[in-house]
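Lab notebook page, bench 4
Experiment: in silico fold of construct C2
Operator: M.H.
Input chain length: 162 residues
Purpose: comparison with the prior construct
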Amino acid sequence: MMSLLSDQFGLSLEYIESRIQTIFLNGKPIDDMDTAIVRNGSILALSSAMPGVLGATLRRGGYYSRMRSQITYVEEAESPQRTDGQIIVKLFNLTIRELGLLFLQRGIWMDAEELKDFFKSQSHNLEGRCVEVMVDGRNAEMAKIPSWNFTAKWVYLQLGTV
């Protein structure tokens, strides 16, 4: 987990320690990032501090974390070989604002239908802000994306900034 966050995602150790307070791997809270292994197909959820008793209980390594010992992630398998793979990353609360652009600039895979729905629902917010749209290396019109018939289920989306 720590290698993924720092080496692959490029997050500083300071950011990981101070800002990412709650981590779920496949629905289980993580306390030890050095032993948790992210595998192909895993679902990773990252959050900054959450309020209240629930937030205090789910916080990584927090005082109340022992109250959730029955659901805490524990690595039971041998360490696998390092390989490429795909995971789903979910960002919550402040991590959306702080990390969302980083992921979009690096590129993400999105379900084609979800991408079309996104562009349909956000076209009023994107119009005038989006300078150029390219698909397969060719210029495209953003307004036409919701009506496209993608040939693949997954679409690679990458955001460039000016």
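Observations: The mean pLDDT is 81. The helical segments are 2-8, 13-19, 52-58, 94-106, 112-126.
Next step: discuss at group meeting.
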